[in-house]
Amino acid sequence: MANDVRNILVPLNGAGNIDAVLRVGLLHARAFNAHLSTVLVGDDPNEMAALTGEGLSSSMINEMMEAAEHEAHRRMLQVRLKFDAFIRDNDIEPKQGFLENDPLAHSKLSASLEFLTGSEHEAVTWRARLSDLTLMPHLGPNDNARASEVLHAVLYDSGCPLVIAPPSPPVTSGTRLCIAWNGTAEAASALRGALPYAKRAEGVQILTSVDYHRRGPEADTVQDYLRLHGVEAEIRDFKGVERDVGAGILAACADFGADMLCMGAYSHSRLRQMILGGATRHVLEHAELTVLMSR
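RESULT FIELD:
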């Protein structure tokens, strides 16, 4: 990832706290004078037909598809109203896309909203591959499975850093940064993705633990690497909370007063159905601050 952020992809699918996502998007767009590319993907009729299964009459299938279409229109209206209020309240210039009239040449922030059709999994992931980062909501236990699938697809298939908003709109994001380091390629990818934030942060702390570290460079080498980029960072040795490394990472973030965490996303499988590592899963489920993940 280049050491700057110019285009932020924000998929809005109705899951999670939209206000929190838009708030983080605003804070990050202001920090980098970046464009916010918000998208909403409508339901794919072919996907719906495949999910209905066998043994259903044509009238029942049509009824289910009509209900899905009604829900899609409801989500579209909800997102449209949220987006319009967001750009109005924050004096953001609406654009048709991130290259319309070179929006980045102006000091005023810009944002666009596009309604896409097709597979949400593919549409969002493909857009993410040509974005500097993708911003998505924190998903709770009651959010739908498709939203979780799209989040994991962006994380593992886009090649783009994923930023996950906290459950509630934050006051700040990226001013005090914690970097969870364990020496892996995933951690290195996340570190490079976090460089634009580290350069602007008021404080940066590298989190390390013997229980978290794998084979690879140690934290003091990361400190030297950041110094090469003009970033002064301190090192913090943390311990797991009741042997839970993920909980230990979040506790260390709270002690530092961090409003953003950077970490690699580790999994135990390279198959499509990823089995997330314990620390990754804990942070995804319990983080109360903005999280940047990469692999």
